[in-house]
Amino acid sequence: MYEAGDVRVEDAPDPVIEQPTDAVVRVVRSCVCGSDLHPYHNLAAADGPAPIGHEFIGVVEELGSEVSGLDRGDLVVSPFAFADNTCAYCREGLHTSCPNGGWYGNGGVGGAQAEAVRVPQAQGTLVKLPAGVDEGLLPSLLTLADVYGTGYHAAFRAGVEPGDSVTVIGDGAVGLLAVLSAGELGAERIILMGRHKDRTDLGRFFGATDVVAERGEEGIARVREMTGGHGTRAVLEAVGHLPAYETAVGVVRPGGVISRVGVPQYEDAPVGFGSLFGPNVSLTGGPAPVRAYIDALLPAVLDGSLEPGRVFDRTVTLDEVPDGYRAMDRREALKVMITF
Amino acid sequence: MYEAGDVRVEDAPDPVIEQPTDAVVRVVRSCVCGSDLHPYHNLAAADGPAPIGHEFIGVVEELGSEVSGLDRGDLVVSPFAFADNTCAYCREGLHTSCPNGGWYGNGGVGGAQAEAVRVPQAQGTLVKLPAGVDEGLLPSLLTLADVYGTGYHAAFRAGVEPGDSVTVIGDGAVGLLAVLSAGELGAERIILMGRHKDRTDLGRFFGATDVVAERGEEGIARVREMTGGHGTRAVLEAVGHLPAYETAVGVVRPGGVISRVGVPQYEDAPVGFGSLFGPNVSLTGGPAPVRAYIDALLPAVLDGSLEPGRVFDRTVTLDEVPDGYRAMDRREALKVMITF
């Protein structure tokens, strides 16, 4: 990505093992993330060009000398953040705070919208998938790299439990999988705020009980009206822009929780007496430690009982990735998968 | 309170029963709260004069026709917010969000720095104390009206549990009782940030294991140094000014929680990737539903095993209340009790 709006596919040297804890993975499926749209809108030319992409399934091609438990030829999925999976933070399930961890596309590690990726901390990061897995499952398995785990993080951090009432803000892939996750955790009522009917229809398929297409004050009033004036106990915010935060404050029940997984495009926001403090509302969330959730989420994906991969509604080749960005930016595609 | 810095004691008509759910209570002990200092610094003349005070122990003098479970002559303590104790919010322990509740000194209800108070929702609000309780226990019992329950709320909402690490920001009465509460909930390490030695000494008596007198960046660096660079899992913020919030962000461990009970004197604050979101830090707290905690906190106060009343270090008569404000404002007194 050279700058906002300018994504190019270029030849680059194949990645090689740099640390004994590295692996090189040949990518089989990758995709474009809603969070990639933030730099697609904002990246300054001075900060580019930058490799991009952080979600992939691939085949292990090379292994550093200190990596065990993986073999060349293994099919693996990678969480969007790499981590050692052994430190105190990882053991607590907070892999995104691992001191040996980091992010694809940063600090000399390539992006995953590429033919191959160097994976630092490969042993702690990569999760082996069954050999010979049905190709039809790859889209759902790919969501374990980010969007399913991120939607799950929103619901998990909000403490969603059986009988709960939940509002999900945002009908992107993460919002829709937050709906799925809230339902899996037992939420009884799931109000999805989104205005793209094809997406909110998928949200209903994933378990949304109500859809609110209105935004801003009107959307807040609608959710309050639907909840006896109270709002819902949990609000899962899967957008990242300040108006979504303000909507979350508007629809959360006193004593409830706003759980954010949309990467905030703001630093300051209302938290005082008139927003969070007065009604004892909690704010939680952050970048999802998806590695912590993969083991639990994998079985229902493998047996086909859950299909988070339905969020992919367009497939492109690597050469067509710039078109993929455009399609997602124009909301013509919900989520774009890249095949190789 | 006429305006900032101007507190006067005036004759006022005795309160009378206005609603069948009211009681009139003759005050035996009242006090000045750290939160009363906020209007003492900021109240505009146009917003005054306003009755003030919200903490008291007293004797029931009159009862509305719909109040049961209380008798004239009962010694009672009142939470700083009145509430019906029957609605959905009260049943969840969130009395400060009771739709029939409210705050002393507002909306036609008098303040508690007075000889008598009208108590709305008396049946749900007032907690009866044993007849003939030792007068020496009154200061500790008085803390159940606010500062002990508020300190407890900070620790409770932060989920403090055995073995935990906690930083308490602020050496006022609430901060010191947050220390006491964190210890009661089993915290192993309690770092108290405060710079008044007589207060932090009381904090040590209440269970603080470490004291950090430095403030701002220096204080943050000190706490990080003491915690292997990580910060503590829980941070209890008992001040309410923005620098205290910033300190909380600086000393909280990734994945940890900031629990606020200092009334925020700001509306916007940092919550983005660089503060709360990136490290998955949660923010919680609000006005304490102290009614929810009184039953649990009362026994250890009555049997003398805990002495939260040690926060009172000066006693004044009602006529001397303006002096009490001055003493607290100048940090000459930690907390001022009013006798009648």
UniProtKB/TrEMBL annotation, chains A, B:
PANTHER family: DEHYDROGENASE, ZINC-CONTAINING, PUTATIVE (AFU_ORTHOLOGUE AFUA_2G02810)-RELATED, ZINC-TYPE ALCOHOL DEHYDROGENASE-LIKE. Pfam families: ADH_N, ADH_zinc_N. Residues 20-130 form the Alcohol dehydrogenase-like N-terminal domain. Gene3D superfamilies: Medium-chain alcohol dehydrogenases, catalytic domain, NAD(P)-binding Rossmann-like Domain. Residues 173-285 form the Alcohol dehydrogenase-like C-terminal domain. This is Zinc-binding dehydrogenase. The keyword Transcription does not apply. Keywords: Metal-binding, Oxidoreductase, Zinc. Belongs to the zinc-containing alcohol dehydrogenase family. It comes from the Bacteria. It comes from Streptomyces adustus. Its cofactor is Zn(2+). One of its GO terms (molecular function) is oxidoreductase activity. Signal peptide: none annotated.
